Amino acid sequence: MPIVLDGKSVAAQIKADLGARVAALKEQGIQPGLGTLLVGNDPGSVKYVAGKHADCAEVGITSIRRDLPAGATQSQIAQAIDELNADPACTGFIVQLPLPADVDELSMIARIDPGKDVDGMHPYNLGELVLHTSGDIATPLPCTPRGVLTLLDHYGIDLDGKEVCVLGRGITIGRTIGLLLSRRSVNATVTLCHTGTKDVHEHMRRADVIIAAMGSAGFVKPDDVKPGAVLVDVGVSRVWDEQAGRYRIKGDVDKACYDKAGAYTPNPGGVGPMTRAMLLANVVEIAERNAAR
Question: Where do transmembrane segments lie in this chain (predicted)?
């Protein structure tokens, strides 16, 4: 039987540990705070931000919320970022993506104070990740890639020398997880596939691990999976269910692949909870580093 990589269960354990660490920080007079900047009312973003604040309440982190209308200008968004950078109650914050089409997302990410970048996506923090092929990294790590590796490690899945096929080149995971996978402490060999990749199905068939992050519902089929491979499904697509009369969330991995896998992440309930847990971990770690100075 394949192993179900239960992100909800592992995230709950992580949050219990973080709650104890937040309590210890409070005893030192330090109150960690997570800020979010949400522009507009995209349903997925609204739900995701609400989940982050619910997580904060669960572990004792203060929530600092900034919401702007969908028509907010780039200068208004920049001003909100500057305010969160300057707010001493805000240990770290995220700018929820996507931003309006006429806003330069990368310049907004670059405007975040690197020391408060709990998404781990600021160019400085990504640069630190690029530079450190081994040893500890004292800057925030990207949440979704970190969550994937933490989940695999929890279940004792050793990636040393394994062939990992990553599907998708987005900044949330596709372009960053290879940096973590190829560090000496993990030691995997990574193939990054995208829309320009020829014979993508052949790359998948050779892989010991497939990390699917394309946003293409059911893209990975049973014929693409080597027996015993580990399947990590990061994709999110809203697909209309005619029978139910509503949209459902679908992952990139066809559920028919599960019987062929050695282990797999359910979707939902796999990588998503881990991403949120890693966001909280980054907040707590920043607060701990600040306390040690």
Answer: none
**What CATH number should be reported for the domain holding residue 40?**
3.40.50.10860
Question: Is 7 known as a binding-site position?
Answer: no
Q: State yes or no: pLDDT of 131 exceeds 90.
A: yes
pLDDT at 90 over 90: yes
Same domain for 151 and 267, yes or no, is yes
Q: Is 147 found in the same domain as 205?
A: yes
168 is in an annotated binding site: yes
Whether residue 15 lies in the annotated active site: no
Could you give the number of structural domains in the chain?
2
User: Which structural domain, as residue segments, surrounds residue 45?
Assistant: 28-113
Whether 52 is a known active-site residue: answer yes
Query: So what's the pLDDT on residue 259?
Result: 97
220: CB partners within 8 A, 6+ apart: 167, 204, 210, 212, 231, 233, 252, 253, 254, 257
Chain centroid offset of residue 184 CA: 21
The whole-number pLDDT of residue 4 equals 98
Q: Is-above-0.85 flag for pTM?
A: yes
- Is 259 annotated as catalytic? no
Phi, psi of 20 (to 5 degrees): -65, -40
Residue in 52, 116, 162, 226 annotated catalytic:
52
Residues 155 and 263 in one domain: yes
245 is in an annotated binding site: no
**287 Cβ contact partners less than 8 Å away, ≥ 6 residues apart:** 22, 25, 30, 32, 91
The residues with which 263 forms a beta bridge, in sequence order, are 3, 230
Is 206 annotated to bind a ligand? Reply is no
- H helix runs in the chain, sequence order: 7-27, 43-59, 74-86, 105-111, 123-131, 143-154, 177-181, 200-206, 271-292
Q: Residue 109 corresponds to which amino acid?
A: I
Catalytic residue among 55, 117, 119, 252: 119
Indicate whether 66 and 177 sit together in one domain: no
Active-site position among 96, 116, 208, 252: 96
Residues 261 and 172 in one domain: yes
